[in-house]
Specification:
With 147 residues, this protein is of the alpha+beta class. The protein is built from 4 helices and 7 strands.
Length: 147
């Protein structure tokens, strides 16, 4: 997606303090229909990777990118990568997938403190990393914004 080869590794049982904060946090809410509980997949992206992703996706130079282009590219990447993980949440339940939304640092921190991290996957290239975090269940705080 960023024009670089990345191999994703999948991990279960990660502690919240092992996940560093990044420039961009995109969350995709998921409802498991039979149990009616919420889960979510979050894509964590550094600014440099977000710019590379958008430039590669839209075929423009990084200097010509708008903030909206970067946000759209990250949301689409979250959609695409999440599609491969939805079956991990439940092979038996029908799932309803919401729209990916950018989350501010405080809102993401609230999710980290209240929700359960079921697993995560990371893709590395040199010193760059894309991370997908699976929250199941997702427990939304009353003070949480933009999720």
């Amino acid at each position: 997606m960023t024009g670089e080869e990345r191999r994703f590794r999948f991990f279960e049982g990660v502690a919240q303090q092992e996940l560093k904060d990044v420039d961009r946090r995109i969350m995709l809410p998921i409802t498991l229909q039979n149990t009616r509980h919420q889960a979510a997949i979050a894509l964590l992206v550094e600014r440099d990777d977000a710019e590379k992703l958008a430039a590669s996706m839209f075929g423009v130079s990084r200097q010509d990118l708008l903030e909206a282009d970067i946000a759209d590219a990250c949301a689409e990447a979250c959609n695409v990568l999440s599609g491969a993980i939805v079956d991990y949440l439940s092979a038996n339940d029908q799932v309803e997938i919401g729209l990916p939304k950018s989350v501010e640092a405080a809102g993401y921190q609230s999710v980290l403190l209240t929700s359960v991290i079921k697993a995560y996957s990371e893709g590395r290239s040199d010193n760059h990393q894309l991370t997908l975090v699976i929250f199941d269940p997702l427990i939304e705080s009353k003070h949480q914004e933009n999720v």
